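Weekly puzzle thread! Below is a chain. First person to post its structure in token form gets bragging rights.
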Amino acid sequence: MRTLISNPTIVNEGEQFRGSIVVNDGRIVEILRGDELPRAECDTVIEATGLYLIPGVIDDHVHFREPGLTQKATIATESRAAAAGGVTSYMEMPNTVPQTTTMKALKEKYAIAAKDSLINYSFFFGATNSNVGEFAKLNAKRVCGIKLFMGSSTGNMLVDKREQLEKIFAEAKRLEMPIAVHCEESSIIAANSKRIKEEVGEDADVKYHPVIRSAEACYESTKCAVELARKFGTQLNVMHISTARELELLGDSNITAEATPAHLTFCDKDYDRLGTKIKCNPAIKGEEDREALRKAVADGRIDLVGTDHAPHLPQDKAGGALKAASGMPGIQFSLLAMLRLADEGVFTIETLVERMCHAPARIYGVNKRGYIRKGYHADFVLLNPNDPHKITKDCIISKCGWSPFEGDEFNWKVEQTWVNGECAYNRGEINEEVHGKALTFNR
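Winning reply:
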């Protein structure tokens, strides 16, 4: 069936124009400009006058909690929240139960996603101090990359031995697989934690979180990762950059950086209002850091935006800087939050599309996704630029049932999300007949 998406404003590859696209058999087969007509009659016409059409968002940084932590979230629930937020593909992190540090655990995740994921998927393989020998078994055309925790993590996924770090970077380079890294220096965090406990008590107010997980901890760890990437020529993506100083370390062609909508939206002043809802690792820091990150997204020093979507149940967030769980859900409202920043003039909508759609596809080598191009998979989003609404609890799809954006007002609204040529989300309704596909990579 040929479907015509008629007359939206298309934002793609640095420009916006009024046009239309034709979808057939899951692919984009025509891109029309202005009043151009399709080459042949279409079976279905979707009238999109007044709407914006962008490529589907590719989120390179999510925690969907399955297997083992399914009281918080599942691949089924979070992929539906993602579709409601305009996300058509995701790359999921390995700190589940069991951790994705063996081939058996990796295959089990792919099997769950093949059955339950509404949108497209891939999974990171987690590095440990002892599993570098497993890397050679990975299919680089099917696995998005290697996740390395050079900071706090669950279980045995903290890699802090220099010898093992060098082996990981060398082997990743040999296999031409990217490393996605969480950078926080554990020894600095431990010393800060000890000092704050002595000064304030066993569970200090959450406002001390950025003091404990300090800018220095981020900088020293990121500096180490960058040095290793330079030494071995490994492709490195520094995830969730949170400080202005870390930006000084960037610039090499094989090193990219990611920011999250949370670090671009909130600053330490918001702890008084939102408390542990915005407690995450690395910590949300000062207003100066937030402004530096925003400028870096605008000028390209930060390459891409991923959510670090990490749902916890409300009871998990009880406590303060040392006892409340770190992480927040974000995938359903990340695109809206970024569009709000575009409306405020922080960056353009063309830049937003570059950071959330094009860059993840380009950096990870995703096959035929992330752009509105003829022959590419028909993953795209229709957005209403003028539908003011407030985020209420009853519209939250993530299984945890809450969001730091609850109560916020947005002008933009996701009208439809299309995945592989099928409408997966349509004005509040999920199409349960849609199934995502495993991403493949050009390596």
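Puzzle host: Confirmed. Bonus trivia for everyone else. The CA atoms of residues 319 and 375 lie 51 Å apart.
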